[in-house]
Design brief:
heterodimer; A: mainly alpha; two-stranded antiparallel sheet; two-stranded antiparallel ribbon; B: mainly beta; five-stranded mixed beta sheet; four-stranded antiparallel beta sheet; about 45% strand
């Protein structure tokens, strides 16, 4: 097989005329007689036709007469016995730019191996001589006497034979022959032309750019990467240069369905067994084309796959071992839907269990329109009129395409979900189905379609009432819910844990709290009703456009029948802005979603998941009677009335004044039997729910007066009331006079004296003078935003809850110069009608 | 243009020495073989003292030049860059990258620094000469013309600002191109393909002496051909062979301040020294072995005014800096 080096070299050397054959013969005879046998040059296989002419000896260095004929070295160089014509040093002595510049191909990176013996089993044709030691040298492929044939434009590369369409390469590397299509990348004519951009600088096509040769991917010289490739195979770019349809991205940069490449495995693990079979990975362990495919020498005869992919998806599951559990689930369509076909028209039995949903380089299913990729995948089977339709999910379901950390209301008063991304163990996905920490919630966030049973221990407890079922869920609820809604779990030991307070209460799915789980008692991820995926029937109310889920229980005969919400309660379904108010408390749209321009709902003031506001404790005497600091209030309303005053800010000035019964009458109970310390400052006079009167939601027994507002005031300012020291003998203006209040009916302006409807108590332009015309009720000192200090301060014309500190009163509008006198002595039956002398004192 | 061979003293000397030596060698070899005696050789050695090597991530460097202010410029060919070093060999800067734009290179080979400090680079792969300022900022370029369809192949350049001439070795076209340094117009062509005087087979690196004689390494003709400033033949230095004064692969040429001509031979790895008539003076010696110093693929050389010899060893990827001992 292997021929002596010299034989090949003499193939084209003619016997030179005038060659010093006589001298050579004489020297050889002399050598035979005198030379010790171990003289090195005597062992040389002499060429048959050495020629010392410069044209030959330019490369055949040892043919120079000095060496070969005279058998010696010179003062300049040592004797040359070894054949060096084919050494890299000889080749580069010309290819260094002085004759040809092949530096970038010969000196950079790696070229075809030289100085090594061919691998055992490789048959080297006789035409390609190895050196004396049986090793490959430059001259194995090249000879100055060769044919001008190369694979590309540069044709004169002195090959020993034509390399047209890689013919020469294949003479040695016959195991890479394209005729063995089942084992090697196809060669020859292909449908698509090799991209010209890829052909530079080293790759070369066959005769035409649509013809694949060895040099399409490899370059014998000048490769800067492995396997003499034109580009590194440690990423997918080499393959994707031609196989553009296998790219993860569209030309517009959008993700295409298909197996990722050039990415590190996240959930999968490439096992050593696969690597032993020849699988390759990227420089940092990334999945590349070579992880599944082997361009040369693969044995499977199946898409050049490194191992045969079968019905059981052995190749896929070699790395995706975490998906093995799919086999025993309903998502193994071989069992559950044997007739279902993917977009390739293949059943799962034909193409493997993974192929029902995934194909490595193209979509397997007709994705349901809209939504993200993973959701589209799920709905391609479970959607309407699909073969695995799930009616339960056709209604309301947990929102998708949302982040687990929603924007909170100002001051963090409210947020549906507040999951720190770095602590979230559930996966989020980008719109193309790629797990991403910055992704959004999809079906696959909660469901693992490959696993029917969750891993690890469940956290079932009597208190939380863990649901035992697992519908491909990644975790058991409610622990899975806790991942995003952890702040809601303060509910566990509160009265709203129905497993404790209403264990027989059924949700829409007829589940008891214990079977539904603590979350499922009130919310259904799929199939809920109205706002908040409500798990119960929402009773009709006066607000059909804004259903209030609380009334499901807080009604007569409801689960919370002891705490029903009746009439004379704080209004809901109103927009604070329509009443000149604004608030940092959450407002809600009819669908239950937080909306800055929404309306007041129960959940504006209440956080149904937390018994005591701001408390991190899940248990704070949850079964006891609530007060203004508990009762699921979103903000504590006692001792400071922070909750009410978040909307009613002007009324906040009542705090610490004589009208703050916490300070002035702490033992006085309201009509619900609560002292100010329990009810809070505001609820000492106004109750939010179930008041006895809808007028101001007044919390006290109303004492008859000349008008409704006076009646309200008299409930305290009477001899038996808590303000018995401040009982005016007269507190009303003659009722038979109707005023036209012009210029004094603008709230916020000086001289504001509102008039009221004596029957309804509402402020009207042409009404009656009553208590609140002069008094504000919530502000001890007019014009001051400071809250009054508790103390025995006696009022005067500059305080006393008066609206104005001015002689410009409404009294003057009618009474002229008597007006001030009448204003100052309004409550004094004697002095309120001044004598003419007093009139003179009061001035004009 | 006409050529005129004035003399060829070097060739005559070499032939004479070669014939004499050949006879001597046969006798001495026979004696050595019969009596197993060492063969005696005699060669004058030009002593040099190794100062330091510069090896800075080169990839097949080819030529070196040193400016008057002591900056060492090395053509780092495959890296398509010019690397600049301080006089003590410390790295200073790099300019150029692979490409065909201004200030970019593709397999540059030769370099020359004009008296003004401008840097002339034979940007071989881009078929052009680029001129940069001493900091390496691009100033201008001129492209070599094709010759019967064969692109120009500049392998080295010599800038003679006082004569407004720039000489460029057009390697593949076997000729020397002469440009006007102000207009960058081609004004003359020296030589043609061939083996005679004023003919070339792959002219490669160049040098110019104080008298403005141009020294052209004629690689396949295995000689250094000397032309005057008008392109007329003056002399040949060296000839084919492996004896003293012979070349196998001559590559670089440089002259010291006394006019001695140093010629590198990349394959046999020696640097031989001649006088300006081509007479062999000796070879650069190895102070350690007391014999001929062996370089690894010596190519471009430069000798500065302080008798420093710079030798680019292409496949050793280094530049050796030596002091010529007088």
């Amino acid at each position: 097989m292997m021929k002596a080096w010299a034989e090949a070299d003499t193939r084209t050397c003619a016997i030179p005329p005038g060659c010093a054959k006589g001298l050579l013969a004489a020297v050889l005879v002399g050598l035979a007689v005198f030379l010790p046998l171990n003289v090195s040059w005597a062992q040389i296989n002499a060429p048959r036709n050495p020629k010392s002419a410069k044209a030959c000896a330019l490369c055949h260095y040892r043919w120079i007469d000095t060496f070969f004929v005279e058998g010696k070295g010179t003062d300049l160089v040592p004797y040359q016995s070894r054949k060096v014509v084919a050494t890299p040093e000889m080749c580069t002595s010309c290819h260094d730019g002085s004759i040809m510049d092949s530096r970038d191909r010969m000196s950079v990176g790696r070229g075809h191996k030289t100085g090594v013996a061919p691998p055992s089993g490789m048959r080297i044709p006789d035409i390609f001589p190895l050196d004396d030691n049986g090793k490959v040298q430059c001259a194995t492929c090249h000879t100055a006497h060769g044919v001008p044939s190369g694979p590309g434009a540069e044709s004169t590369i002195f090959m020993r034979t034509t390399n047209k369409d890689s013919a020469m390469c294949r003479m040695c590397h016959d195991d890479k022959l394209s005729t063995r299509m089942d084992r090697n990348h196809p060669m020859g004519k292909v449908e698509r032309a090799i991209p010209r951009k890829f052909l530079r600088p080293h790759a070369a096509p066959g005769k035409k750019v649509d013809k694949i040769t060895c040099e399409s991917c490899h370059t014998a010289h000048g490769s800067t990467t492995n396997a003499y490739l034109a580009r590194s195979s440690r990423d997918a770019s080499l393959c994707l240069a031609c196989h553009t349809d296998k790219s993860m991205l569209t030309p517009q940069g959008r993700k295409k369905p298909g197996h990722v490449v050039n990415a590190k495995p996240v959930t999968a693990k490439i096992p050593a067994t696969l690597l032993e079979k020849g699988a390759r990975v990227g420089a940092s362990g990334e999945v590349i084309c070579g992880t599944c495919h082997r361009v040369h020498g693969q044995q499977t005869g199946q898409h050049l796959l490194i191992m045969r992919d079968d019905q059981n998806a052995t190749l896929c599951l070699t790395c995706h071992t975490d998906k093995l559990s799919l086999v025993k689930t309903g998502h193994n369509l071989i069992k559950s839907a044997p007739k279902a076909k993917n977009l390739q028209g293949q059943t799962a039995a034909q193409a493997g269990i993974c192929s029902a949903c995934h194909l490595p380089h193209k979509p397997a299913r007709d994705l349901a329109p809209g939504g993200d990729y993973t959701t589209g995948m799920c709905m391609s089977c479970h959607g309407k009129e699909r073969f695995a339709a799930r009616p339960l999910i056709f209604g309301q379901s947990h929102p998708l395409d949302v982040t687990p950390k929603d924007a909170a209301a100002p001051n963090g008063y409210y947020s549906p979900a507040l999951a720190p991304r770095d602590q979230l163990s559930l996966p989020l996905y980008d719109r193309y189905g790629v797990p991403s920490r910055n992704g959004k919630v999809t079906c696959a966030t909660c469901h693992d379609p490959h696993r029917l049973q969750t891993v690890g221990k469940t956290t079932s407890s009597a208190e939380s009432g863990t649901a035992p079922k697992n519908l491909f869920l990644r975790q058991n609820p409610p622990e899975m819910c806790r991942q995003c809604h952890g702040d809601k779990f303060a509910i566990t030991k509160s009265k709203h844990n129905l497993a404790k307070t209403a264990p027989k209460e059924l949700n829409r799915l007829k589940q008891t709290p214990r079977s539904a789980g603590i979350c499922g008692s009130c919310h259904l991820v799929h199939g809920g009703e109205g706002p908040f995926l409500w798990a119960k029937k929402i009773p009709s109310t006066d607000h059909p456009s804004n259903p209030i889920v609380c009334f499901s229980c807080h009604r007569d005969k409801g689960a919370a029948a002891k705490k029903p919400i009746h009439a004379n309660s704080h209004p809901i379904d109103v927009a604070p802005s329509e009443h000149g108010l604004d608030t940092r408390l959450p407002l809600f749209a009819p669908d239950g979603k937080h909306a800055a321009d929404g309306r007041v709902a129960c959940y504006t003031c209440h956080d149904p998941h937390r018994w005591r506001s701001g408390s991190s404790r899940e248990n704070d005497d949850p079964m006891g009677e609530g007060d203004a600091g508990t009762s699921f209030l979103r903000i504590s309303n006692a001792p400071a009335p922070r909750l009410c005053t978040d909307c009613h800010r002007e009324q906040a000035r009542v705090e610490n004044s004589d009208h703050d019964l916490n300070a002035s009458a702490p033992d006085v109970e309201n009509n619900q039997g609560r002292k100010p310390a329990q009810s809070g400052t505001c609820s000492a006079c106004h109750v939010a729910h179930n008041g006895k009167s809808d007028f101001l939601l007044w919390a006290r027994e109303i004492t008859p007066g000349s008008d409704q507002l006076e009646s309200v005031c008299r409930s305290c300012h009477q001899k038996s009331g808590p303000a018995k020291g401040k009982v005016p003998e007269i507190a009303s203006h003659p009722q038979d006079i109707t005023f036209r209040n012009i210029g004094r009916n603008t709230k916020g302006r000086s001289g504001y004296f509102p008039l009221f409807d004596p029957a309804g108590g509402r402020e009207i332009p042409n009404g009656q003078l009553t208590c609140l015309s002069c008094h504000s009720g919530h502000q001890w000192r007019p014009g001051s935003t400071d809250r009054a200090q508790v103390g025995p301060e006696e009022g005067d014309a500059g305080s006393s809850f008066l609206r104005n500190k001015s002689s410009d009163t409404i009294c003057r509008d009618c009474h002229g110069r008597q007006g001030l006198y009448r204003y100052l002595y309004f409550h004094d039956p004697v002095y309120r009608n001044p004598s003419p002398a007093e009139m003179r004192l009061s001035g004009p | 243009m006409s050529s005129q061979a004035r003399c060829n003293p070097g060739r005559f000397l070499s032939q004479t020495v070669s014939a004499r030596f050949r006879a001597y060698a046969v006798v001495s070899l026979a004696a050595a073989l019969i009596w197993n005696l060492p063969v005696a050789h005699a060669i004058n050695l030009v002593r040099v003292k190794h100062l330091f090597d510069i090896a800075s991530g080169f990839n097949a460097p080819s030529d070196v030049a040193v400016s008057k202010d002591g900056r060492i410029y090395v053509v780092d060919g495959v890296n398509s860059a010019i690397k600049v070093f301080k006089y003590d060999g410390d790295p200073m800067s790099t300019f150029g990258q692979k490409g065909a734009g201004p200030g970019q290179f593709h397999l540059p080979l030769g370099i020359d620094i004009a008296a003004s400090g401008k840097v002339y680079i034979a940007d071989s792969g881009n078929h052009r000469v680029q001129i940069m300022n001493r900091q390496g900022r691009f100033e201008t370029e001129f492209k070599l013309p094709d010759n019967k369809g064969k692109p120009g192949d500049p392998t080295d350049v010599v800038a003679d600002e006082s004569a407004r001439r720039c000489y460029v070795a057009d390697n593949d076209n076997h000729r020397i191109l002469v440009y006007d340094l102000k207009t960058f117009k081609l004004i003359d062509i020296f030589g043609q393909p061939g083996t005679g005087n004023r003919e070339f087979r792959y002219p490669f690196l160049l040098a110019q002496d104080k008298e403005k004689y141009l020294y052209i390494v004629d690689v396949i003709n295995t000689r250094v051909q000397v032309l005057n400033r008008k392109g007329l033949f003056v002399a040949n230095i060296g000839e084919w062979g492996v004896e003293k004064g012979h070349f196998f692969r001559p590559k670089g040429v440089a002259l010291d301040r006394s006019g001695r001509v140093f010629v590198s031979d990349s394959y046999i790895g020696v640097i031989q020294v001649f006088d300006q008539t081509g007479a062999f003076l000796g070879a650069v010696g190895d102070s350690g072995t007391k014999g001929v110093k062996r370089f690894k693929t010596p190519v471009g050389m430069f000798i500065d005014s302080k008798d420093r010899l710079y030798v680019v060893e292409m496949y050793a990827n280094r530049v050796g800096v030596y002091k010529i001992v007088r």
